Amino acid sequence: MATITTLDEELSQFERDIRQLKVEYDQYFGGGRKRPPTEIEWRIEVTIKRYAERGGELKLGQRFRFNNLTQTYAKYKEIFRKRLQMKEEGKVQRHFGAAAREIEAERARKQAEISDKEAAKKAARTTFRISCADTEMEAEKIAKLYEVFLHAKQSVGEDTAKLTRSSFNEFLLKKTRDLQKQKNCHEVEYVVEVVEGHVKLKALVKS
Asked: What predicted TM-score, i.e. pTM, was given to this entire model?
């Protein structure tokens, strides 16, 4: 079985492949490449299939990161599909000369901006939920929530330098007790979300 470090490195490569795919597709639609980047796209598809088959090896934080990256790829893939369809249907006129290629590239950029906005509206939220009643007696739950929250922030590039296990535990203990007292509830459900590239931690009361 691969080590945790190896899996994290593979996920980082998966993330770099997705970014590179977008760069190379933008070059293709802008006239800088003769062919779509099918090789890197094939590599991403193979990675998704491999992790789907070995999902049991992933820890909670790694699975959360993988699902988030898969959703990002699905969003880009839909954008590329639409732009390829437009290109095949001849909606992007072909011209000759440097000036004409510049016009064509500008059209492609504008269409990409429109497609990005449409895809962002449809992008699903990546979530993780866990309920707590007594955080002092639920160390395993709190550890899972911390791991997911930490990996989620790392996956979107947010600063985690000041985030520590002890400070996170203290926050949850105080937050849970305060809500139980204020809302007269038994459990508090904590939800980790990645919404439009930002990580959020929500606390919801449960009777």
From this structure: 0.52
